[in-house]
Amino acid sequence: MSVVTLRELKPGQTAVVVKVTTGGELGRRLRDMGLVPGTPLKVIGRAPLKDPVEIKLRGYNLTLRNNEADHIMVEVEQAS
Amino acid sequence: MSRSHIAVAQASNPSHGQVTVALAGNPNAGKTSLFNALTGARQHVGNYPGVTVDKKEGEARLDGQPINVVDLPGTYSLTAYSLEEVVARNFVIGQRPDVVVDVVDASNLERNLYLAVQLMELGVPLVIGLNMVDVAEQRGMKIDTAKLSELLGVPVVPTVARTGQGVQELLRVAVELARQKPDWRPLDISYGADLDQAIAELAGILEGSTPRHGLIAARWLALKCLEGDHEVLESMRQDQNLTSRLEPVRQRVGEHLKSTLDDDPESVIADYRYGFISAITRQALVLEREVRMDFSDKVDRVLTNRLIGPLFLLGVLYGVYQFVFWASRAPVAWFETFFGWLGGAVEAALPEGLLRSLLVSGVIDGVGGVLGFVPLIMFMFLAIAVMEDSGYMARMAYLMDRVLRVFGLHGNSVISLIVGGGISGGCAVPAVMATRTLKDPQARLATILVVPFMNCGAKLPVYSLLISAFFAHRQADVMFALTIISWTLALLAARLLRSSLLKGRQSPFVMELPPYRTPTLKGLLIHTWERTWEYVKRAGTILLAVSLVVWALMSFPGLSEQDEARFASLAAQAQGEESQKEIANQKASAELGGTVAGRLGRALTVVTDPLGFDWRTNVALVGGLAAKEVIVSTMGTAYSLGQAAKKGVDAEPLAKRLQDSPGWTPLSAFALLVFVMIYSPCIATLVTIRRETGTWRWPLFSMVHNTLIAYLMALLVYQGGRALGLG
Ligand SMILES: Nc1nc2c(ncn2[C@@H]2O[C@H](COP(=O)(O)OP(=O)(O)OP(=O)(O)O)[C@@H](O)[C@H]2O)c(=O)[nH]1
Ligand SMILES: [Mg+2]
Questions:
Q1: Are residues B265 and B155 in the same domain?
Q2: Contact B76 A32 (CB under 8 A)
Q3: Closest ligand to the CA of B161
Q4: Atom of ligand 1 nearest to the CA of B520
Q5: Which of these, B40, B77, B162, B641, has the minimum number of CB atoms within 10 Å of its CB?
Q6: Residue B494 is assigned to a structural domain of this protein
Q7: B135: Cβ below 6 Å to ligand 1?
Q8: Measured between beta carbons, which residues in chain B are less than 8 angstroms from residue A25?
Q9: Rounded Cα gap, residues B674 and B670, in angstroms
Q10: DSSP assignment, residue B98?
C-alpha cells in the first residue's frame, strides 16, 4: 500500500482517495465532483497525449488534467 | 447583481397566485427533458434581463390549471463559483419559487445528492425527481424510493424524463407540496464537534444582527461563511460591526482545523456532506449485480484509445462533412430554383420601377440567397446534434484538450469551433453561446474571438460562387484548403491573444464524461430546429433590413437626366438583341457607380487595391459586414446582372461574369475567399458577443482585430502570389 498522486496511476488501476491537497476553486470543483477522502476510483484511460486522464468514481466517468490530478493523493489498491 | 440577492431576499414570487416550480439539478441529469415533457409544445423561451445564462420558463398544466415551470442551469453545487451556480442560487433565494424539483440522476445517485443536500440545507420546499431510473436499472441498481424519501425527509418520485414516465406524478407531488405553502425548513447536518460549535456561534451572531437577512436561515449563512462563500462574505462585509464579530470565530475554527486535521473548513464540510449521503445511499441503494464494465466503458476503450481515437475523430469530421454536402445538394438546388422562379415571377408580374427592383433585388435576392442554404445548415446542425446528444462531443473535448491547450484554448473549445463551422457550415451565434461550458474566462474569451474564423453557413454561398467561377475543377481541394486555413488561423490567433491581451493561468479542466446514449429523434429535431430557426429568423429580420438598406444605397441617387438620355439614344441606335443587352448592362453599371454605395466602393479602392479587390467587391464587403450572405447578392447586383439580365440568384451567370471581368484572377479570388473568411463577424454574432461578454468592448475589438488579420492575410496571399508569378 502506497500513497501516490493520481497522475502516477496507470489505466486499469484502482485506488482510494486519501486527501485533496488544494483549496480554492479547484479544490471546490474536485469536491463537488465527489473526490473526497475515502472515495474509491479507477483509472479508465488517458487521452492520446497522455493527458487528460479519465477516471471512474461513484458510478460515473470524470476527466481531469494531469496537473489537477497532482493534487489528489490516493492509496493504490491493486495493480492490474 | 451579486450581493443584492442575498441581502434583499424577500418573498417576491413573480407570478401572483400561480404556482412556480423551479427545476434544479446537476448538468445532464435530464432537467430540460423533464421541462419539455412538462411544458410540451407550449414552451416558450424567455431571457431574463441582466442574467447572462439562459433560464427557460414555460407553462405546464395540472388538472387544467397552469403551472409555471422554470428550467434552471445545471450545477453540481450551490456555491457561488460559476455563473450557472450564481444564477440557480439567486433564483432560488431571490425569487423564492413555491417548490424546487431537484432532478437527480438515479444512475449517479451519490454525486447528484450532493446538490440535493445543499438545497435541503437551504430549506427550500423540495421534491426529488429521481430521473433515469431506466439507466440505473440497466446497471443493476435498485433504489428503494420510499426509504430514500424517508431518510431524506422529502418526497421522491421516480421518472424517466425521456419517455415522460412518472413526469405528471412528479408535477402533482410538487404542486401539492407548493399548495401547502410550507415554511423553509433547513436541514441540519452535523459537521463534527468543532464545526458544529462554530456554526452555532456564527448563527447566534447573525440571528442577533439586523433582520435584513430575514428569510434565509442564519445557520445556512453561517455555514456559507465557513465555506468561504464569496458572495455571502461580501454581503456580510457591508456591515463592519457584524464582520468584526464573525471574523474571529472563522479564524479560530480555521486555525484549529489546520492544526488538528491539517485541513480547512471547506473540505471538512464536503467530507461530512458526502458522509451523510453515503449513509443514506447505503440503505436506499442496492446493487443487485455488479456491472464491471458497462457499455459506455467498452465503447470508450475503442473511441478514446490512443491510436484509434484520433483516427476515428478525423473520420467523424470527414464523414459529417461528406454527409452534409451530399444530403443537402439536391434540396439546395431546389431552393435556388424556387427563388429564381419567384424572382422571375415577380419580375414578370410587376412593371419596371422602384417597387419591382426593391422586391426582386432587395428582398428576394437578399433573403432568398440565404434561405437557399437552409437545407445545408439544417443537415450540419443535425449532424452536430447527433454528436452532442450521443455523448461523442464530450469525448472530442477530452481527446483534443491537450492539443488545444498549447494554443491557450480548452477541450470544450472544440465544441464551439465545430458548431461555428469547423467542418464548414455552422453558425457563430450558437457557437459563441456554447462557450458557456468553458469555466475559464480567458480561454472562453479567446474561443469567442476566434470562433468567427470558422466557415459558417453564411460564408458558403460566397465560397461556392467564387469556387465555381475560378476553381471549378478542384472544388474539393479548395474547400479543404479553406477549412485548414481557418483552423490554423483560429489556433494561431488564439495563441496570440492568450499571450497578450488574455494572459492568465489556465483554469481547471474537470469534466464529466456522460455515458453514451442513443439520441432521441425528438431531441435531435429540437436541437436542429432551434438553431436552424435562428438562422431563418435572421434572414427574415436583420438580413431583410440590411438587404433593403444595401439596395437603397445601390439605387440612389439614380442617373442624371443627361445620362438617362444618352443611354436611351444609344439603345435606340443599337441593333440586335445582343447589343441591346450590352447597352442595358452598361447603363446598369453606370447607375450603380453613381450611387452612394458605388462612390463608397470606389473610395475604398485606395485600401483594397493591394488585395486585388475592385470597387464592386468593396461594396459587397461593406454589405457583408451585416451578414456575409449579403456579399453574394450584392455582387450579383453590382456586376450589373441586376436590372439587365436578371435571373434570380442563379450562381452560374454571376460566376461567368466574374470570370470574364478584367482584374479577376484565381489569385484575387482566393485573396477574397480568405478575406471573407476572416473579416469582421456579422451583426448577429457581434450582438451575441456583446451579450455573452457583457460589454461592447469585445465585439468592437473583434471587428477591428479580425478585419486587420483578414487584410494582412489577403495581402499576403495576393502580393505573395504575384511575387511567385501566380497572378
Ligand atoms: N435513458 C434516459 N435518458 C434520459 C432521461 N432523461 C434524460 N435523458 C437523456 O439525458 C441527456 C441529458 O438530458 P438533458 O435534459 O439535456 O439534461 P439537462 O439536465 O437539461 O442538462 P444541462 O442542460 O446540461 O444541465 C439527454 O441525452 C437525454 O435524452 C431518462 O430518464 N432516461
Ligand atoms: Mg438543459
A1: no
A2: yes
A3: 1
A4: 29
A5: B40
A6: yes
A7: yes
A8: 81, 507-508
A9: 6
A10: S
Residue B15 identity: S
Q: Across the strands, what pairs with B269?
A: none
Strand segments (E) across B198-348: 285-287
Tell me if B303 is assigned to some domain.
no
Backbone angles phi, psi at B628, to 5 degrees: -65, -25
Q: Which helix (H) or strand (E) holds B388?
A: helix B374-390
Element (H, E) at B102: strand B99-105
Is A68 touching B (CB cutoff 8 A)? yes
Q: Is the sign of the CA dihedral B301, B305, B310, B314 positive or negative?
A: negative
Return the CA Rg of chain A.
11
Q: Which of B108, B508, B513 sits opposite A58 (nearest CB)?
A: B108
Is the separation of the CB atoms in B613 and B333 below 8 Å?
Answer: no
| Domain definitions of chain A by residue range | 3-76
The phi, psi pair for B104, rounded to 5°, reads -115, 130
Kindly give the distance from the C-alpha atom of residue B170 to the centroid of ligand 2, in angstroms, as a whole number: 18
The answer, yes or no, to whether any atom of ligand 1 lies below 6 A from the CB of B160, is yes
- For ligand 1, the distance from its centroid to the CA atom of residue B233, given in whole angstroms, is 35
Residues B653 and B556 in one domain: yes
Residue type, B692: E
A3-76 maps to CATH 2.30.30.90: yes
Residues B393 and B434 grouped into a single domain: yes
Question: Which of chain A's residues have a Cβ under 8 Å away from the Cβ of B300?
Answer: 44-45, 54, 61
Count how many domains chain B has: 4
pTM over 0.95: no
Interval B480-539: pLDDT, tens: 899 999 999 999 999 999 999 888 877 778 888 888 888 888 878 887 888 888 778 876
Residues B84 and B169 in one domain: yes
What does the pLDDT read at residue B689?
A: 93
Amino acid in the structure at residue B74: G
The answer to whether the beta carbons of residues B706 and B682 sit under 8 Å apart is: no
Domain span at residue B712 reads 541-723
- Count other Cβ atoms within 10 Å, centred on residue B663: 11
Same domain, B175 and B198: no
CB B386 within 8 A of CB B524: yes
Q: How far apart are CA B430 and CA B688, in angstroms?
A: 9
CA of B28 to the centre of ligand 1 (A): 5
pLDDT in tens, B264-310: 898 899 999 999 999 999 998 877 666 666 788 888 888 988 899 99
- Cell 484575387 belongs to which residue? B668
Query: Is B649 a residue whose pLDDT tops 60?
Result: no
**Whether B24 and B71 share a structural domain:** yes
Instruction: Give the cell for residue A7.
Output: 497522475
| Residue partners of B125: CB distance under 8 A and separation at least 6 | B98, B99, B100, B177, B178, B182, B184
Residues with CB under 5 A from ligand 2 (ion): B 32
* Subunit contact A27:B108, Cβ cutoff 8 A: no
**Could you tell me whether strands B285-287 and B141-143 are parallel, antiparallel, or unpaired per DSSP bridges?**
antiparallel
Q: What is the ipTM of this complex?
A: 0.94
Task: Tell if the CB–CB gap between B512 and A23 is shorter than 8 Å.
Answer: no
